[in-house]
Structure prediction request, 564 residues.
Amino acid sequence: MKKCVLLLLFLSSFLALSQKKYPANYFRSPLDIPIELSGAFGELRSNHFHAGMDIKTQKRNGLKVYATADGYVSRIKVALWGYGKVIYITHQNGYTSVYAHLSKFRDGIQEYIKKIQYKKKSYETGNVFPEENEIFVKKGQVIGYSGSTGGFVAPHLHYEIRDTKTEHIINPMLFGLRVKDQKKPRINALLGYPIKSNSHINSSNRKQVINFKKTSDSTYIANRITASGKIGFGVNTYDRLGEALNKNGVYSIEMRVNDKRLYYHDVETFSFAESKFINLLIDYPHYAKYRRRIQKTFRERSNKLSIYDGLVNDGVLDIKEGMSYQIQIIVKDFSGNTSSLKIPVVGKKSNSFFERLLDTTNYKVLSADFTKFSKNGVTVAFPKNTFYEDTYLDFDIHKEEVQVHRPNIPLDKRFTITFDSTRYKNKDLDRMYIANINNKKYPSYIKTIKRKDKVFATTKTLGKYTLLVDNQKPKIYNPNFKENAWVTRLKFLTIRISDSQSGIKSYEAFIDDEWILMEYDLKKKKLSYDFRDKKLVGSKHIFKLVVSDNVGNTNTYTSTFYRK
Prediction:
């Protein structure tokens, strides 16, 4: 009973603090359905934190999306990737709300953006900034419809709240948006990290998995470990909300040592610029190998995240011989549901322990210096501070494959890989490109620049690269009309396109030699033209589609149709 009272007091004080800092009743929900999340704010994603909350839309597109408060539309963007179709609304209270992956905009906004698309002759608009109060919206007014635009995403609404001046993203739940959640976070894995070469855990100075067991719904206890010197810990954890099965991120992680806090971070707010340092928050090599994110409860020297609070010695423990330590890692979700993992530690030196092997090669990068290596006609060049620390790299060439280490080290900047192309024929060079082949089954095109005697590209991914030649035209297929057919009853003209090698770079469509807007559904590989866009003159019409891939191969499709 006493524990329940203390928990209620904690929740009350937590919510009261949030309400004082952020207006809790200013914003309404962006949807008229119960809020269930497929993605929580601040979740760990590839190279970034999730910048909003992903709200489920019952596995369908077309739900009405509402302005969550009075304001004006300050930005609109249409893109094939990223946020897809997105609206930004600036509010008088100093915040901006963001609504992404829309299927379409509401009447008025839809026509506004189509005029820009036709003017630019492009589906993608880039950022469009209407004049202040040019498009004013009221709280609860429909601004668009939910969708799945912006890459290979399932139907959902991505919703954000940002500080208008700083562009910092803030957890929408701090503004009163609530999700039913009685489930406690789950802790799945615990790793121990000897920080220094003379540190050890269980007679080893290699990082290691530490076994633990669950003792109740919310508590775990690890096997006792012996340690010496400076060490740290990391956990894999997730949270489930309501009845949904999605593995969402947690709100905060704390580490206490003998009941004194040494480490704490939460995902109240962060900036886009710092989001990349997620790769130092997690054990990046472990994730690269096992696809499982371990969050460290200590901060690396180069980590510039602002999510930390009150760190002691950056969360690094200094274990002394003969001393006993009770470590407790506490994980919470936004609703205050809590799980904790206790780790008993005894300080004990070991004269014989397993040493981790030093990773040395002939190719060392000093992080503070520009570094370049060349071998057999291939050069890799790393600008200053590409790496977060000094690093030994594997660099080798076998037949036509270039090995630039392994993709298990995070990079802060892009590096350049250059191939000497003088040994290739001109006709091959015209259709040649650099590909990442970490997944050999699906080579990935890297934007390639060609000069007379070389081809080069920049990338932030280590691993295997090669030169490939693409001589195949993009495919154009499956139109929803036949040659010389009447299509008066069709609302949309559709056709599919694809490219299996370097990938599609651009497309242009015309009816009677006039450019038309065709929306590109990446998942279905389908282009669609809305016949309501413009009135056609006469009954006979010529449709033309030109599709180009990333190395310049072009395919053209023409067909005649009739329409009253």
Q: What stands out?
A: The chain has four domains: 2-175, 186-347, 363-469, 475-562. Helices lie at 2-21, 109-120, 278-281, 284-290, 426-430.
